[in-house]
Design brief:
By secondary structure, the chain is an alpha+beta fold. It contains 9 helices and 15 strands. The two termini are 53 Å apart.
């Protein structure tokens, strides 16, 4: 793990000032420290900071390299769950695995003659995650839609993927591919806002409820800041990542002009299902990803209690 710049600089300074020739040349006292002898803006201090920064960057690069190598080794280790993910992402539409006399002899493709763009276009599976239950491997998959978000594979691509996996999987291992539409999510919020910063636009009949809250959109520079925040939390989740109410609350509270926010309820249902259930704390999507189906915001101007 990379040391901090301060740690590296401190070690350089300690080594520097411990040299007899340096202490004699600078006329330093016997137990005088580097910080006592040199100003933070001295040439020596600035030079050591630059050197320490370079060493820190190099150590960070080594850490990153180690992580990438470890991840690649894990991905290449045959027939682990990560291997199945790697192979699923490597599936290529319209291509055959390497064959000899009509028999598949390798679990990869011959891509000679293909450009990087051709390979990227043929790899229609953009998201994948594998889990295991007893002797069955479940692989959630998705393509990438025009909006940059996950979307189900086309039927022909799904059929091709299943055939490809049946050729490379371990004998006796059952694989189930889950290619589902996004889990739908409904969110209901209550917000107290600063009218000097945010503009409220009614979305219903404009009449407040018994608690004084009105169905609204909160705008700043013409943008719906609440919808942006909620959509951002959902869209930035990694594939098959957990949604957490605490993350949504943090996003709402970070909006300038939002004084108080409360999550009334969040409900979710597997894609294509109307069986919504309340999200308590967190939830992992059945399909691997979410889509915001409905957002209800009720609010009123924040008033400081006298």
């Amino acid at each position: 793990m990379a040391r901090s710049i301060a740690e590296i600089k401190a070690q350089i300074c300690e080594t520097f000032i411990s040299q007899d020739a340096i202490r004699t040349g600078y006329g330093l006292k016997e137990n005088q420290s580097f910080d006592k002898a040199f100003s933070p803006v001295s040439l020596e201090s600035l030079m050591f900071y630059v050197v320490a920064s370079c060493i820190w960057l190099l150590e960070k690069l080594f850490d990153r390299h180690r992580e990438e190598v470890d991840a690649r080794i894990d991905a290449l280790r045959p027939h682990t769950l990560r291997w199945y993910v790697t192979k699923t992402l490597a599936y290529m539409r319209g291509k055959d695995l390497i064959m000899t006399d009509g028999v598949v002899v390798a679990d990869y493709y011959d891509t000679s003659g293909m450009t990087e763009a051709d390979i990227e276009k043929a790899r229609v599976v953009k998201y994948a995650v594998a889990t295991e239950d007893n002797t069955q491997v479940f692989i959630k998959v998705a393509a990438r839609g025009n909006n940059g978000q996950p979307t189900p594979l086309q039927p022909d691509d799904l059929a091709g993927l299943k055939g490809y996996l049946s050729q490379i999987k371990d004998a006796g291992v059952a694989i189930k591919v889950l290619n589902e539409p996004a889990d739908n999510m409904r969110v209901e919020l209550v917000v107290l806002y600063d009218p000097a910063i945010l503009t409220a636009q009614p979305t219903g009949n404009g009449r407040p409820d018994a608690d004084g809250y009105t169905a609204i959109r909160l705008l700043r520079d013409g943008k719906d800041v609440i919808t942006e925040a909620v959509s951002g939390v959902i869209s930035k989740l990694p594939f098959n990542g957990e949604y957490r109410n605490s993350d949504l609350m943090a996003a709402l509270q970070s909006i300038e002009g939002v004084r108080v926010a409360d999550i009334v309820k969040v409900e979710a249902a597997a894609g294509g299902s109307e069986a919504y259930s309340r999200v308590v704390g967190y939830r992992r999507p059945y399909s691997g990803y979410y889509a915001l189906q409905n957002l209800t915001v009720r609010g009123r101007a924040y008033q400081v209690a006298e």
